[in-house]
Amino acid sequence: MAKQILQQGRRWYVLHTYSGYEENVSQNLKQRIESMDMEDKIFNILIPIEKKIKIKNGKRKIVEEKIFPGYVLVEMIVNDDSWYVVRNTPNVTGFIGTGTIPTPISENEIKDLQKRMGVDEPKFKIDVSINSPVRITDGPFKNLEGKVVDIDEAKGKIKILVSMFGRETPVELDFLQIKKI
């Protein structure tokens, strides 16, 4: 950081990592903090995740999914030593900021992120979007095809326009009852 000591106190910063190495970076950083006696400068490491319900082969499964793949949040006091420890952790490509100066994120952003992570009810994750063609796999409309017009992730419901009796008819179904074509 070349003698650029930032006196901003304890703040949250965003680290860019190789995608898929977030856990590895977190573990390595924790070991480096302990071995280099930096507990008084680097306080928390956070990988933002949320729970989602994924539907695979007609079965619901709760999975943890990274909100920001390739990024890790670190609460720290930035000075030359702490910057060096974090920046030179394996698989860290750098801080988010201008040049070598990391930019802190606001407390409001952290609170919003923690709220999002603290949500108890997982969201549904499906691989269809609005206007996607789908086939109904269960219920009275089984084997009919239609296109998606509305998705309600919170309830796990999807609305499809199906052509019946010579006109388009909206049908509300559970995510488990459809398959992407």
Layout of helices and strands, plus pairs?
Blueprint: E1 10-17, H1 22-35, E2 42-46, E3 49-56, E4 59-66, E5 71-77, H2 80-87, E6 92-95, E7 97-98, E8 101-102, E9 104-105, H3 107-117, E10 123-125, E11 133-136, E12 145-152, E13 157-164, E14 167-174, E15 178-180
Attribute tags:
SH3 type barrels, 2 domains, alpha+beta, Alpha-Beta Plaits, 181 residues
Model description:
- The strands form four sheets. Strands 1, 2, 5, 6 and 9 form a five-stranded antiparallel β-sheet that branches. A five-stranded antiparallel β-sheet has the order 14-13-12-11-15, with no helix packed on it.
- 17% of the residues are buried.
- Strand 7 (97-98) and strand 8 form a beta hairpin.
- It has helices spanning 22-35, 80-87, 107-117; strands at residues 10-17, 42-46, 49-56, 59-66, 71-77, 92-95, 97-98, 101-102, 104-105, 123-125, 133-136, 145-152, 157-164, 167-174, 178-180.
- The protein has three helices and 15 strands.
- It has two domains: 10-124, NusG, N-terminal domain (Alpha-Beta Plaits, 2-Layer Sandwich); 127-180, SH3 type barrels (Roll), CATH 2.30.30.
- It has 181 residues and is α+β, with helices and mostly antiparallel strands.
